[in-house]
Design goal:
It is a single chain. The chain has helices at about 20-30, 75-85, 130-140, 155-160; strands at about 1-15, 35-40, 45, 60-70, 105-110, 115, 120-125. About 30% of the residues lie in helices and about 30% in strands. Helix 3 runs antiparallel to helix 4. It has one domain (about 1-160): 7,8-Dihydro-6-hydroxymethylpterin-pyrophosphokinase HPPK (Alpha-Beta Plaits, 2-Layer Sandwich). It is an alpha+beta fold and about 160 residues long.
Protein backbone atom coordinates (compact mmCIF):
# COMPACT_ATOMS: atom_id res chain seq x y z
CA UNK A 1 0.00 0.00 0.00
CA UNK A 2 2.74 2.48 0.91
CA UNK A 3 5.77 2.96 -1.32
CA UNK A 4 8.17 3.70 1.54
CA UNK A 5 9.93 6.99 0.83
CA UNK A 6 7.81 10.11 0.99
CA UNK A 7 7.62 12.10 -2.24
CA UNK A 8 6.01 15.33 -3.33
CA UNK A 9 2.88 14.94 -5.44
CA UNK A 10 0.99 17.66 -7.28
CA UNK A 11 -2.79 17.40 -7.23
CA UNK A 12 -5.09 19.48 -9.42
CA UNK A 13 -8.52 20.26 -8.00
CA UNK A 14 -11.56 21.51 -9.87
CA UNK A 15 -15.33 21.79 -9.53
CA UNK A 16 -18.05 23.41 -11.62
CA UNK A 17 -21.23 21.95 -10.09
CA UNK A 18 -22.77 22.46 -6.68
CA UNK A 19 -21.03 24.36 -3.90
CA UNK A 20 -17.70 24.54 -5.69
CA UNK A 21 -15.63 26.24 -3.00
CA UNK A 22 -16.95 24.02 -0.22
CA UNK A 23 -16.25 20.91 -2.28
CA UNK A 24 -12.67 21.94 -3.01
CA UNK A 25 -12.06 22.88 0.64
CA UNK A 26 -13.46 19.49 1.70
CA UNK A 27 -11.22 17.73 -0.80
CA UNK A 28 -8.19 19.57 0.55
CA UNK A 29 -9.06 18.36 4.06
CA UNK A 30 -9.36 14.81 2.70
CA UNK A 31 -5.98 15.12 0.94
CA UNK A 32 -4.37 15.86 4.29
CA UNK A 33 -5.38 12.34 5.29
CA UNK A 34 -3.20 10.91 2.50
CA UNK A 35 0.01 12.53 3.69
CA UNK A 36 1.11 16.02 4.63
CA UNK A 37 -0.49 18.90 2.77
CA UNK A 38 2.50 21.22 2.30
CA UNK A 39 0.94 23.96 0.19
CA UNK A 40 -2.24 24.89 -1.61
CA UNK A 41 -2.95 27.62 -4.07
CA UNK A 42 -5.75 30.10 -3.88
CA UNK A 43 -8.84 29.38 -5.98
CA UNK A 44 -8.96 30.42 -9.63
CA UNK A 45 -12.05 30.59 -11.81
CA UNK A 46 -11.83 29.48 -15.44
CA UNK A 47 -14.38 28.68 -18.15
CA UNK A 48 -15.09 24.98 -18.65
CA UNK A 49 -13.10 23.26 -21.40
CA UNK A 50 -15.37 22.09 -24.20
CA UNK A 51 -14.65 19.80 -27.13
CA UNK A 52 -14.22 21.54 -30.48
CA UNK A 53 -17.56 22.64 -31.90
CA UNK A 54 -19.50 22.12 -28.65
CA UNK A 55 -21.47 25.24 -27.74
CA UNK A 56 -23.43 23.84 -24.80
CA UNK A 57 -22.94 26.20 -21.86
CA UNK A 58 -21.34 24.91 -18.69
CA UNK A 59 -20.74 26.68 -15.40
CA UNK A 60 -17.16 27.91 -14.88
CA UNK A 61 -14.72 25.85 -12.86
CA UNK A 62 -13.00 26.76 -9.64
CA UNK A 63 -9.47 25.36 -9.77
CA UNK A 64 -6.56 24.96 -7.38
CA UNK A 65 -3.35 22.97 -7.03
CA UNK A 66 -2.12 21.26 -3.88
CA UNK A 67 1.34 19.99 -2.98
CA UNK A 68 1.14 16.80 -0.94
CA UNK A 69 4.00 14.85 0.63
CA UNK A 70 2.94 11.22 0.69
CA UNK A 71 4.37 7.73 0.83
CA UNK A 72 1.52 6.26 -1.23
CA UNK A 73 2.59 4.68 -4.51
CA UNK A 74 1.20 6.59 -7.52
CA UNK A 75 -1.53 4.09 -8.42
CA UNK A 76 -2.65 3.91 -4.78
CA UNK A 77 -2.70 7.69 -4.64
CA UNK A 78 -4.77 7.80 -7.84
CA UNK A 79 -7.24 5.34 -6.31
CA UNK A 80 -7.45 7.42 -3.14
CA UNK A 81 -8.12 10.58 -5.19
CA UNK A 82 -10.93 8.83 -7.06
CA UNK A 83 -12.41 7.67 -3.73
CA UNK A 84 -12.45 11.31 -2.54
CA UNK A 85 -14.20 12.32 -5.78
CA UNK A 86 -16.88 9.69 -5.12
CA UNK A 87 -17.41 11.00 -1.58
CA UNK A 88 -18.22 14.37 -3.15
CA UNK A 89 -20.74 12.92 -5.58
CA UNK A 90 -18.72 12.19 -8.70
CA UNK A 91 -19.80 9.09 -10.59
CA UNK A 92 -17.41 8.46 -13.48
CA UNK A 93 -19.71 5.80 -14.98
CA UNK A 94 -22.65 8.19 -15.29
CA UNK A 95 -21.04 11.51 -16.17
CA UNK A 96 -20.70 10.85 -19.89
CA UNK A 97 -17.08 11.58 -20.73
CA UNK A 98 -14.24 13.91 -20.00
CA UNK A 99 -15.98 17.11 -21.12
CA UNK A 100 -18.87 16.92 -18.64
CA UNK A 101 -19.53 19.12 -15.60
CA UNK A 102 -18.26 17.80 -12.26
CA UNK A 103 -18.90 18.18 -8.57
CA UNK A 104 -15.20 17.46 -8.00
CA UNK A 105 -12.26 16.59 -10.21
CA UNK A 106 -8.95 15.55 -8.68
CA UNK A 107 -6.03 15.01 -11.05
CA UNK A 108 -2.73 13.48 -10.09
CA UNK A 109 -0.57 15.93 -12.05
CA UNK A 110 2.95 14.79 -11.16
CA UNK A 111 4.94 12.83 -8.62
CA UNK A 112 8.44 14.02 -7.83
CA UNK A 113 11.07 12.24 -9.88
CA UNK A 114 8.66 10.00 -11.80
CA UNK A 115 7.69 9.58 -15.42
CA UNK A 116 4.95 6.95 -15.78
CA UNK A 117 3.10 5.67 -18.84
CA UNK A 118 0.51 2.99 -18.19
CA UNK A 119 -3.03 2.56 -19.49
CA UNK A 120 -4.36 3.81 -16.13
CA UNK A 121 -1.89 6.58 -15.31
CA UNK A 122 0.40 8.95 -17.21
CA UNK A 123 2.78 11.18 -15.23
CA UNK A 124 3.26 13.99 -15.55
CA UNK A 125 -0.33 14.63 -16.61
CA UNK A 126 -0.18 14.71 -20.42
CA UNK A 127 -1.88 18.11 -20.82
CA UNK A 128 -0.90 19.98 -17.67
CA UNK A 129 1.70 22.09 -19.49
CA UNK A 130 -1.06 23.39 -21.83
CA UNK A 131 -3.47 24.49 -19.11
CA UNK A 132 -3.30 27.89 -17.42
CA UNK A 133 -5.78 26.66 -14.78
CA UNK A 134 -3.06 24.21 -13.69
CA UNK A 135 0.08 26.30 -14.24
CA UNK A 136 -1.05 29.53 -12.55
CA UNK A 137 -1.95 27.83 -9.25
CA UNK A 138 1.13 25.59 -9.57
CA UNK A 139 3.26 28.75 -9.67
CA UNK A 140 2.05 29.48 -6.11
CA UNK A 141 2.82 26.07 -4.63
CA UNK A 142 5.98 24.84 -6.39
CA UNK A 143 7.34 27.38 -8.91
CA UNK A 144 10.67 25.60 -9.29
CA UNK A 145 9.05 22.29 -10.32
CA UNK A 146 10.54 21.16 -13.65
CA UNK A 147 8.51 19.20 -16.18
CA UNK A 148 10.60 16.02 -16.57
CA UNK A 149 9.79 15.56 -20.26
CA UNK A 150 10.09 19.19 -21.35
CA UNK A 151 12.87 20.31 -19.01
CA UNK A 152 11.06 23.58 -18.23
CA UNK A 153 10.09 25.08 -14.88
CA UNK A 154 6.67 26.56 -14.18
CA UNK A 155 7.49 30.19 -15.17
CA UNK A 156 8.89 28.94 -18.50
CA UNK A 157 5.81 26.78 -19.11
CA UNK A 158 3.57 29.79 -18.44
CA UNK A 159 5.65 31.94 -20.76
CA UNK A 160 5.17 29.35 -23.53
CA UNK A 161 1.40 29.55 -23.02
CA UNK A 162 1.32 33.31 -23.41
CA UNK A 163 3.02 33.10 -26.83
Amino acid sequence: MRCGAAVRALIGLGANLGERERQIEGALEALAGLGRLVARSRLYEYPALLPPGDRRPQPPYLNAVALLVTDLAPLRLLGALQAIERRFGRDRRREGGRWRPRTLDLDLLAVEGLVVETPRLVLPHPRMHERPFVLRPLLEVWPQWVHPRLGLDVPALLARLSR
